[in-house]
Amino acid sequence: MKKPGIPSLRVIGLIFAGVVFLLLLACAAMKQSSVHPPATIPGAAYMGMESCAGCHEKTVKDFKFARHAKLMVTLSEGQEVQGCEACHGAGSLHMAAGGGKGVAIINPGENPSTCYQCHPEVKGFFSLQYHHPVGEQGLTCNDCHSPHGEDIMLPRGRVIGQHDAPCNECHQEQSKPFVYEHEALREGCNICHSPHGSINDKLLVAGDANLCLRCHAQIVGDEIELGGVGHNTRLAEGTCWSAGCHTAIHGSNVNSSMRY
Known about the structure:
By secondary structure, the chain is an alpha+beta fold. The chain has helices at 9-28, 57-63, 85-88, 92-96, 113-116, 120-125, 165-170, 172-175, 210-216, 232-235, and strands spanning 32-33, 71-74, 80-82, 130-131, 180-181, 197-198, 218-220, 223-226, 229-230, 251-252. 26% of the residues lie in helices and 10% in strands. It starts with 8 loop residues before the first helix and ends in an 8-residue tail after the last strand.
């Protein structure tokens, strides 16, 4: 009788993606409250999302299906604001001025502080030793995420079945096609990297060999085997990628074990 095998990383990833998708569908039907409203614009009044459509017709049309469109901000005086102004602030002065980028309006694409109002945990990641330079070198949340998109939780440009498109824009060498690819890349860079920040160099989710052992290790007696080869001694020499072994960690054109 054939013993059931361990589900592959890809199968586990698909199951996880399905669970997340169902959770997002449930959340999409709910109004969500913000902990803090956006920064105030002195003298401006809230006009409602439909008033924005005069100049931003396509954005408003698409935004109605976005998760952020469900965001409900309760102001100090008890007024509830939903839609564009929940993040961009009251729009009356912006409209009176005839529009214009950054004119009497808050632009989260220029400053991530507005995003931090609802995502304080992300701000904490950016405070770690190793982090993406958001707010330091012109990088903003919008460079990776589409706040007006249908699914804000997926990185901007992400297409199912492809590598992480936003990461590719800056990390082309790591994400280019390889003859022998690291199959984990099919699941996305987040399998190994913490995109906002980490206590580990290269934004790794683990700084030791456990990063690789999560997917590749097999315990045989007292020996840790990888690819049918005992690795107890090798693992004592350092991480898989820094001990001079599997240095082509993202993929290789000449070696199936990604040794170079």
